[in-house]
UniProtKB/TrEMBL annotation:
PROSITE patterns per record: INTEGRASE
Keywords attached to this entry: Endonuclease, Hydrolase, Nuclease, Nucleotidyltransferase, RNA-directed DNA polymerase, Transferase
Domain Integrase catalytic residues, every copy: 205-305
Protein's name in the database: Integrase catalytic domain-containing protein
GO biological process, alphabetically ordered: DNA integration
Length: 305
Protein backbone atom coordinates (compact mmCIF):
# COMPACT_ATOMS: atom_id res chain seq x y z
CA UNK A 1 0.00 0.00 0.00
CA UNK A 2 2.95 2.28 0.61
CA UNK A 3 3.81 2.06 -3.10
CA UNK A 4 0.26 3.05 -4.09
CA UNK A 5 0.29 6.09 -1.80
CA UNK A 6 3.71 7.11 -3.07
CA UNK A 7 2.58 6.91 -6.71
CA UNK A 8 -0.58 8.91 -6.05
CA UNK A 9 1.41 11.61 -4.28
CA UNK A 10 3.89 11.76 -7.15
CA UNK A 11 1.24 11.94 -9.89
CA UNK A 12 -1.41 13.81 -7.88
CA UNK A 13 -1.58 16.76 -10.28
CA UNK A 14 -2.38 14.38 -13.15
CA UNK A 15 -4.86 12.14 -11.32
CA UNK A 16 -7.08 14.67 -9.53
CA UNK A 17 -10.45 14.92 -11.26
CA UNK A 18 -9.92 11.73 -13.29
CA UNK A 19 -11.28 8.26 -12.73
CA UNK A 20 -8.63 5.54 -12.84
CA UNK A 21 -7.90 1.96 -11.81
CA UNK A 22 -5.06 0.74 -9.59
CA UNK A 23 -4.09 -2.86 -10.28
CA UNK A 24 -2.01 -4.72 -7.69
CA UNK A 25 -0.73 -8.26 -7.22
CA UNK A 26 -1.18 -7.93 -3.43
CA UNK A 27 -4.64 -9.25 -2.66
CA UNK A 28 -4.73 -7.63 0.79
CA UNK A 29 -4.09 -4.20 -0.73
CA UNK A 30 -7.02 -4.63 -3.11
CA UNK A 31 -9.42 -4.66 -0.09
CA UNK A 32 -7.95 -1.55 1.53
CA UNK A 33 -10.88 0.69 0.59
CA UNK A 34 -13.41 -1.64 2.26
CA UNK A 35 -11.32 -2.35 5.36
CA UNK A 36 -13.21 -1.47 8.57
CA UNK A 37 -10.43 -1.39 11.16
CA UNK A 38 -7.53 0.90 10.32
CA UNK A 39 -4.29 1.71 12.08
CA UNK A 40 -3.40 5.40 12.60
CA UNK A 41 -1.12 5.31 9.55
CA UNK A 42 -3.79 3.61 7.42
CA UNK A 43 -6.32 6.21 8.58
CA UNK A 44 -4.05 9.00 7.36
CA UNK A 45 -3.67 7.18 4.04
CA UNK A 46 -7.43 6.77 3.76
CA UNK A 47 -7.90 10.49 4.35
CA UNK A 48 -5.39 11.24 1.55
CA UNK A 49 -6.93 8.68 -0.84
CA UNK A 50 -10.35 10.28 -0.42
CA UNK A 51 -9.22 13.02 -2.81
CA UNK A 52 -9.10 10.57 -5.73
CA UNK A 53 -11.75 8.77 -7.76
CA UNK A 54 -10.32 5.31 -8.30
CA UNK A 55 -10.89 1.58 -7.96
CA UNK A 56 -8.46 -1.08 -6.80
CA UNK A 57 -8.32 -4.41 -8.61
CA UNK A 58 -6.37 -7.54 -7.82
CA UNK A 59 -4.22 -8.92 -10.64
CA UNK A 60 -2.09 -12.03 -10.02
CA UNK A 61 1.66 -11.55 -10.41
CA UNK A 62 1.87 -14.15 -13.19
CA UNK A 63 -0.35 -12.03 -15.43
CA UNK A 64 1.14 -8.69 -14.39
CA UNK A 65 4.12 -8.93 -16.72
CA UNK A 66 4.13 -5.23 -17.60
CA UNK A 67 4.71 -4.20 -13.99
CA UNK A 68 7.50 -6.75 -13.67
CA UNK A 69 9.26 -5.36 -16.71
CA UNK A 70 9.07 -1.82 -15.34
CA UNK A 71 10.01 -2.58 -11.73
CA UNK A 72 12.76 -5.15 -12.14
CA UNK A 73 16.24 -4.57 -13.48
CA UNK A 74 16.80 -7.10 -16.22
CA UNK A 75 20.31 -8.49 -16.52
CA UNK A 76 21.07 -7.74 -20.14
CA UNK A 77 24.72 -6.90 -20.36
CA UNK A 78 28.23 -7.99 -19.55
CA UNK A 79 28.28 -5.87 -16.41
CA UNK A 80 25.63 -8.05 -14.77
CA UNK A 81 26.47 -11.47 -16.25
CA UNK A 82 30.00 -12.67 -15.77
CA UNK A 83 29.23 -15.62 -18.04
CA UNK A 84 29.42 -13.28 -21.02
CA UNK A 85 31.98 -13.71 -23.86
CA UNK A 86 34.02 -10.96 -22.20
CA UNK A 87 35.31 -13.51 -19.69
CA UNK A 88 36.98 -15.51 -22.42
CA UNK A 89 38.52 -12.29 -23.72
CA UNK A 90 39.79 -11.45 -20.21
CA UNK A 91 41.29 -14.94 -19.79
CA UNK A 92 43.03 -14.53 -23.14
CA UNK A 93 44.38 -11.14 -22.10
CA UNK A 94 45.83 -12.58 -18.88
CA UNK A 95 48.16 -14.71 -21.00
CA UNK A 96 49.71 -11.70 -22.74
CA UNK A 97 52.17 -9.28 -21.21
CA UNK A 98 54.99 -10.02 -18.76
CA UNK A 99 53.50 -8.04 -15.85
CA UNK A 100 50.09 -9.70 -16.17
CA UNK A 101 51.63 -13.18 -16.32
CA UNK A 102 53.66 -12.44 -13.18
CA UNK A 103 50.49 -11.27 -11.40
CA UNK A 104 48.67 -14.43 -12.49
CA UNK A 105 51.49 -16.64 -11.20
CA UNK A 106 51.61 -14.82 -7.84
CA UNK A 107 47.87 -15.19 -7.35
CA UNK A 108 47.97 -18.89 -8.21
CA UNK A 109 50.72 -19.38 -5.64
CA UNK A 110 48.78 -17.36 -3.05
CA UNK A 111 51.53 -14.75 -2.66
CA UNK A 112 49.30 -11.72 -3.29
CA UNK A 113 47.16 -10.15 -0.56
CA UNK A 114 45.15 -7.93 -2.87
CA UNK A 115 44.36 -10.49 -5.60
CA UNK A 116 43.42 -14.15 -5.81
CA UNK A 117 42.96 -16.58 -8.68
CA UNK A 118 39.79 -18.55 -9.41
CA UNK A 119 38.81 -20.32 -12.66
CA UNK A 120 41.79 -18.74 -14.48
CA UNK A 121 40.54 -15.25 -13.56
CA UNK A 122 42.14 -12.77 -11.18
CA UNK A 123 39.79 -11.28 -8.57
CA UNK A 124 40.24 -8.42 -6.11
CA UNK A 125 38.28 -6.92 -3.22
CA UNK A 126 34.52 -7.08 -3.75
CA UNK A 127 34.98 -10.08 -6.06
CA UNK A 128 35.72 -7.80 -8.99
CA UNK A 129 37.49 -9.21 -12.02
CA UNK A 130 40.89 -7.76 -12.90
CA UNK A 131 40.88 -6.57 -16.54
CA UNK A 132 44.31 -6.59 -18.24
CA UNK A 133 45.47 -3.97 -20.72
CA UNK A 134 44.87 -6.12 -23.79
CA UNK A 135 43.59 -5.13 -27.22
CA UNK A 136 40.36 -3.04 -26.85
CA UNK A 137 39.12 -5.04 -23.85
CA UNK A 138 38.91 -2.17 -21.36
CA UNK A 139 37.32 0.15 -23.92
CA UNK A 140 34.71 -2.49 -24.76
CA UNK A 141 33.74 -2.72 -21.07
CA UNK A 142 33.49 1.07 -20.86
CA UNK A 143 31.38 1.11 -24.02
CA UNK A 144 29.05 -1.54 -22.55
CA UNK A 145 28.63 0.43 -19.31
CA UNK A 146 28.12 3.80 -21.01
CA UNK A 147 27.00 3.53 -24.65
CA UNK A 148 24.67 0.53 -24.50
CA UNK A 149 20.88 0.95 -24.45
CA UNK A 150 20.53 -0.16 -20.85
CA UNK A 151 23.33 2.17 -19.66
CA UNK A 152 21.85 5.21 -21.41
CA UNK A 153 24.98 7.38 -21.67
CA UNK A 154 25.18 8.10 -17.94
CA UNK A 155 27.54 10.61 -16.38
CA UNK A 156 30.99 9.94 -14.98
CA UNK A 157 29.93 8.88 -11.47
CA UNK A 158 27.20 6.46 -12.52
CA UNK A 159 29.31 4.92 -15.28
CA UNK A 160 32.16 4.48 -12.80
CA UNK A 161 29.81 2.80 -10.33
CA UNK A 162 28.59 0.38 -13.02
CA UNK A 163 32.13 -0.58 -14.02
CA UNK A 164 33.39 -0.87 -10.44
CA UNK A 165 30.52 -3.20 -9.60
CA UNK A 166 32.19 -6.08 -11.49
CA UNK A 167 35.57 -4.99 -12.85
CA UNK A 168 38.86 -3.48 -11.73
CA UNK A 169 42.05 -2.17 -13.32
CA UNK A 170 44.59 0.55 -12.41
CA UNK A 171 43.59 4.15 -13.23
CA UNK A 172 39.99 3.01 -13.76
CA UNK A 173 38.57 6.36 -12.65
CA UNK A 174 40.77 8.30 -15.11
CA UNK A 175 39.79 6.00 -17.99
CA UNK A 176 36.08 6.37 -17.24
CA UNK A 177 36.36 10.17 -16.98
CA UNK A 178 38.21 10.39 -20.31
CA UNK A 179 35.75 8.03 -22.04
CA UNK A 180 32.65 9.92 -20.86
CA UNK A 181 34.08 13.37 -21.62
CA UNK A 182 34.99 12.33 -25.17
CA UNK A 183 31.70 10.53 -25.93
CA UNK A 184 30.40 12.02 -29.20
CA UNK A 185 26.72 11.33 -28.43
CA UNK A 186 26.95 13.01 -25.01
CA UNK A 187 28.66 16.06 -26.51
CA UNK A 188 26.00 16.38 -29.20
CA UNK A 189 22.86 15.78 -27.13
CA UNK A 190 23.54 16.78 -23.52
CA UNK A 191 23.06 20.34 -22.32
CA UNK A 192 26.21 22.18 -21.28
CA UNK A 193 26.41 22.47 -17.48
CA UNK A 194 28.45 25.66 -17.55
CA UNK A 195 28.15 29.30 -18.52
CA UNK A 196 27.84 30.01 -22.27
CA UNK A 197 31.11 30.80 -23.99
CA UNK A 198 31.84 34.24 -25.35
CA UNK A 199 31.96 35.35 -28.96
CA UNK A 200 34.61 33.94 -31.25
CA UNK A 201 37.54 36.25 -31.89
CA UNK A 202 39.33 36.02 -35.26
CA UNK A 203 43.10 35.76 -35.21
CA UNK A 204 44.89 39.07 -35.92
CA UNK A 205 46.29 39.38 -39.44
CA UNK A 206 50.12 39.24 -39.39
CA UNK A 207 51.93 42.31 -40.73
CA UNK A 208 54.99 40.56 -42.19
CA UNK A 209 56.25 37.09 -43.17
CA UNK A 210 57.20 34.62 -40.43
CA UNK A 211 55.61 36.66 -37.71
CA UNK A 212 52.92 34.05 -37.11
CA UNK A 213 52.61 30.43 -38.25
CA UNK A 214 50.04 27.66 -37.95
CA UNK A 215 51.10 24.06 -37.49
CA UNK A 216 49.68 20.56 -37.24
CA UNK A 217 50.57 16.91 -37.83
CA UNK A 218 49.50 14.67 -40.72
CA UNK A 219 49.68 11.10 -39.43
CA UNK A 220 49.44 7.50 -40.69
CA UNK A 221 51.12 8.21 -44.02
CA UNK A 222 52.92 5.47 -46.02
CA UNK A 223 56.23 4.73 -44.34
CA UNK A 224 59.25 6.40 -45.97
CA UNK A 225 62.76 6.27 -44.49
CA UNK A 226 61.29 5.34 -41.12
CA UNK A 227 58.85 8.28 -41.06
CA UNK A 228 55.05 8.09 -41.15
CA UNK A 229 54.15 11.60 -39.98
CA UNK A 230 54.51 15.10 -41.41
CA UNK A 231 54.77 18.22 -39.28
CA UNK A 232 53.23 20.96 -41.43
CA UNK A 233 54.18 24.57 -40.64
CA UNK A 234 52.46 27.32 -42.67
CA UNK A 235 53.37 31.00 -42.56
CA UNK A 236 50.06 32.81 -42.07
CA UNK A 237 51.19 35.90 -44.03
CA UNK A 238 52.67 34.39 -47.22
CA UNK A 239 51.06 30.89 -46.94
CA UNK A 240 54.53 29.39 -47.45
CA UNK A 241 54.44 25.80 -46.18
CA UNK A 242 57.21 23.71 -44.65
CA UNK A 243 56.79 19.93 -44.51
CA UNK A 244 58.96 18.19 -41.92
CA UNK A 245 59.16 14.35 -41.84
CA UNK A 246 58.81 12.84 -38.36
CA UNK A 247 58.48 9.46 -36.67
CA UNK A 248 55.04 7.98 -36.10
CA UNK A 249 55.11 8.75 -32.35
CA UNK A 250 56.71 12.17 -32.29
CA UNK A 251 56.91 13.44 -28.66
CA UNK A 252 56.98 17.11 -27.68
CA UNK A 253 60.78 17.27 -27.33
CA UNK A 254 61.31 15.78 -30.79
CA UNK A 255 58.68 18.12 -32.27
CA UNK A 256 60.43 21.11 -30.69
CA UNK A 257 63.82 19.94 -32.04
CA UNK A 258 62.42 19.58 -35.57
CA UNK A 259 60.72 22.98 -35.31
CA UNK A 260 63.97 24.67 -34.28
CA UNK A 261 65.97 22.88 -36.98
CA UNK A 262 63.64 23.45 -39.92
CA UNK A 263 61.85 26.72 -39.06
CA UNK A 264 63.60 28.89 -36.47
CA UNK A 265 67.04 28.07 -37.91
CA UNK A 266 66.14 29.41 -41.37
CA UNK A 267 63.74 32.21 -40.46
CA UNK A 268 63.36 33.81 -37.05
CA UNK A 269 61.90 33.32 -33.59
CA UNK A 270 58.17 33.71 -34.16
CA UNK A 271 55.75 36.05 -32.46
CA UNK A 272 52.80 33.63 -32.38
CA UNK A 273 52.15 29.95 -33.15
CA UNK A 274 48.62 28.74 -33.89
CA UNK A 275 47.89 25.04 -33.30
CA UNK A 276 45.16 22.69 -32.16
CA UNK A 277 44.87 21.23 -28.66
CA UNK A 278 47.30 18.38 -29.32
CA UNK A 279 48.84 17.25 -25.98
CA UNK A 280 52.27 17.94 -27.45
CA UNK A 281 51.34 21.61 -27.92
CA UNK A 282 49.55 22.02 -24.59
CA UNK A 283 52.12 20.15 -22.48
CA UNK A 284 54.45 21.81 -20.01
CA UNK A 285 57.63 21.32 -22.06
CA UNK A 286 56.27 23.03 -25.19
CA UNK A 287 54.62 25.92 -23.32
CA UNK A 288 57.65 26.63 -21.12
CA UNK A 289 60.04 26.48 -24.09
CA UNK A 290 58.19 29.07 -26.14
CA UNK A 291 57.50 31.18 -23.07
CA UNK A 292 61.27 31.55 -22.68
CA UNK A 293 61.56 32.41 -26.39
CA UNK A 294 58.85 35.06 -26.07
CA UNK A 295 56.47 33.30 -28.47
CA UNK A 296 52.73 33.44 -27.81
CA UNK A 297 50.83 30.15 -28.24
CA UNK A 298 47.32 30.47 -29.68
CA UNK A 299 44.94 27.55 -30.06
CA UNK A 300 42.20 26.87 -32.57
CA UNK A 301 38.66 26.11 -31.43
CA UNK A 302 38.42 22.66 -29.87
CA UNK A 303 36.05 19.97 -31.13
CA UNK A 304 32.44 20.95 -30.34
CA UNK A 305 30.05 18.43 -31.95
Amino acid sequence: MTAVVHCLRTWRHYLLGSKFVVRTDNIATSYFQTQKKLSPKQARWQDFLAEFDFMMEYKPGKTNAVADALSRRVELAAISRLESPLLGWIKEGLQHGAKVRILLELTREGKSRQFWCEDDLVYTKGRRVYVPLYDNLRREILRECHDSKWAGHSGIHRTLALVEERYYWPQLRDDVETFVKTCLVCQQDKIEQKSPVGLLEPLPIPERPWESVSMDFIVNLPKSEGCQTLMVVVDRFSKYATFIPAKKDCPAKEAARLFMKHVVKYWVVLTTIVSDHDPRFTGRFWTELFKLLGTSLNFSTSLHP
